[in-house]
Amino acid sequence: MNTQHSDLHQSLVGLFQQLGMYAQANKIATDPQLHFLDTIGFNRQLDRYDIDFSVLPADHKKMMCAIHPFVVIPSDSQAFVARRKDERLEQLAADQTWQPLTNITSMAGAHMVLIEHLPGQRGEQSRFTQELDKRRKWYRPVFWLSLLASITGLTVPLFTMAVYDKVIGGQAPAELPGIAMGAILALAILVVCRIVRAAILCSVSNRMARDLSDMTFSRLLHMPLMVLGRVGISNHIARLRNAERVRMLFSGPGGAGLIDIPFTLIALFTIVLLSGWLVVVPVGMLGLYYLIARGLQKYAQRASPTLSTKHQNSINELTKQLLALKTSGNYSGWIERFIRQTRINCQQNFAYAKRNGLNQAVSHGLSLMTALVTVFTGIFLVLDQSITAGALIASTMLIWRITGPAQLAFASLPKMAMLKSASQQFDNFMKVKTENNELRLEIPDSSGPPSLKFQHVTLRFSATQEPVLSSIDFEICPGEVAVVIGPNQAGKSTLLQAALGVIEPQSGFITINDRNLTQYDPTNFRHWAGYAPAQPDLFPGTLADNLRISRPEATEEELQQALLEAGAATLLDTLGGSLNQDLFEQGYSTLTAIEGSYISLARALLKRSPLLLLDEPIANQNPRARRQFVHTLEQLKGRHTVLFSSHDPELIKHADKVLVLDKGCLVYAGPQPQSQPVQEA
């Protein structure tokens, strides 16, 4: 189903129009990046505008239950928009008129995208619960498989009772083959039901974990950078791991135990039929077991580790700063801190594991005690001839059918609490506003270099800190090359990130071509603009893979040209001119920060964007790289608008305009001064 279709673009535009989302429809219609969509891209656009949907095989019954217009994607013809109108189905024709939909039965292999909720129409139901509801079609098969498994699970106790009472007690060995065949057949059904149920639970839990991870990752990518920065990387990783917790709970033995709990009533009912009021014993022991397990759970929870997050942060810090620590030659203090945290974390984990072990030991002991109390109580019933000896043995065996799931369920109580916490975190996370909204739909103009203007821009990272940028005012005309200079911590990088739109100021306006930056679609704008950060980011893969992050369709000739324009000729020589050299061949990057900065600069230049934002290009002041980049700047003038930061006087003097920052304030903005001190500020 994942193939590209131009008709998907038309169907998506038509769907948004029929949903009343005309601004979004116009944006999609005019966005050149969306003219050829695959089904994944189609779904991403729905996610982007906060529309809940389901992708299902085409089914007439489900179509007749659709509330909103939907899209049908046949396997061998063009996709189209359809709707339910009273008791009939209609499809949207090319002339935007509704025509009867008649060929439903011939849509073998077709899929449909059903719209469930429009933005702001979800009500109070949590997103996590909605994802569970989407798997509702599996509830029924899991129920019937569990019921059949519970009934056939009575085979061994009943077989034992029949052998003891009829074959041995009744001296009727001829009955044994028939009883044995029935027991074998029932056991085979039990095994098949368990295997099929486990496969269904594993498949459903894996798909749900996949969908939750996709939703979380997509949400992270579209959240404002300042919000992400306040939370921290470890919390983002924890959110992605929440999906794994869901998978482990439902696909593990604890999930099967939770599902089997309601079906223990079958075993209890069977004990009533076999032994009468003897059923009071397991019921009473289950109540006692529940009270003790709850107390032990609280006891274990009080020993829950409190240093895990700090310890994990230390490990993350170690992986990122290992080279700096080794080269400093003085890392004894860091080692002492890490060892201290590791020791405390291990002690806390040991105490928590010990209390959990006590919980498991007590639960196992109570299970044995339940069986023993049942046997001793049943002996008096056998002596009183109220029940047979075989019935007592069968009832004792059925006890394990009750205490086994109960033991697994109680052992899973911490996981249930973890799942509840994970679902609440997921719901709260999905409520956080993203950068996407109905007011940010403009697409940047690629026909020529843009103008860039800051108007009274003030930005601070927290209310208790001084502004990083304070009332910044300047304008860069189309095709100009401007440089931002100033001491470290003056706000140069923040200014470039604000111009890119990844950081939003608290007051003031940033305009591109006299249009407020907040009106542009953030994804389209960043795809359109070229940005090179001061700190290079390399990804596992080849040099070509790292460059094509900014422009996947680029040819090898274009990649080499971008590297040369970035002054990376020495990097190409080091790699033997090969773009397919794995940068992480030894498990870590062998490139220096300087070589990494060449790659970041080449990524930005590879876009051929009308707007280039470059943070400290050629910061190493390599003479050969500087000469090449100066040549590149001269080539960009007039055809691209360039804003870059630098401390290099040789680069600064080639700018058309100079912006001087000091402690977040703009102290000069104008043409290239003639005096040397200003050039070297």
UniProtKB/TrEMBL annotation:
Membrane topology reported for the UniProt record: Multi-pass membrane protein
TM helices/strands, residue ranges: 142-164, 176-200, 261-292, 361-383
GO annotations of cellular component type: plasma membrane
Pfam families, sorted: ABC_membrane (PF00664), ABC_tran (PF00005)
Keywords: ATP-binding, Membrane, Nucleotide-binding, Transmembrane, Transmembrane helix
Highest taxon of the lineage: Bacteria
Domain ABC transporter, residue spans: 452-681
GO terms of molecular function: ABC-type oligopeptide transporter activity; ATP binding; ATP hydrolysis activity
ABC transmembrane type-1 domain residues: 145-418
Cell compartment(s), UniProt: Cell membrane
InterPro entries the record matches: AAA+_ATPase, ABC1_TM_dom, ABC1_TM_sf, ABC_transporter-like_ATP-bd, P-loop_NTPase, Type_1_exporter
Protein's UniProt name: ATP-binding cassette domain-containing protein
